[in-house]
Amino acid sequence: MTDTEDFLAATRTFYDAVAEDYAGHFRDPLADRPLERALLAAFAEQVGPDGTVADLGCGPGEITAHLSSLGLSVFGLDLSASMIAIARREHPALRFEQGSMLELPVADGSLAGAVSWYSSIHTPVDRLPRLFAEFHRALAPGGLLQLAFQTGDEPLRLDRPWNRPVVLDFHRRRPERMAELLSGAGFTLRSSTVREREERNAESAPQAFLLARKKG
Fold it and tell me: Global pTM?
């Protein structure tokens, strides 16, 4: 098994095991996050209703459904079959597919926008150039990419969450380094936002949101 296959398998196994617990815990992830809602609204307004948007690493589909409510033609993609099953159950009017962000099941230049909402956080740093190159391939010239991730240098390891026998690292990133990687992949940074952690939501680190546009 290659290193890439190894981390993908670990991520899939983790989320298959915790899918129902995760979906219950994060049932309305934007309810008390006005900044995040505003950033997604700005993304939706700039993309517009005509092109296709992919919610990459969609989990149980809550962000996919929110993007749809903003008028976007959106589908969700996730590694975990259990997460996709929940997304289809909870949001039957929307399209969800199982697959890897490193091998998107779309044609070159076919997406008007893509959202990676806390889904690049399991990709090792040396695999990020390949990930962002795949995002770039899938987006049309001028297409928008919205990233969300925790800031920092040390990963957070979750060991046996909800008493499930799984473990996974959640990588934290520096926004400036992520911006450099996006630039190297052919993106132009449009905005960088960092929100301090909120203790009421049990956050352990500040949250970062980058909006980038594919050149061309």
Answer: 0.94
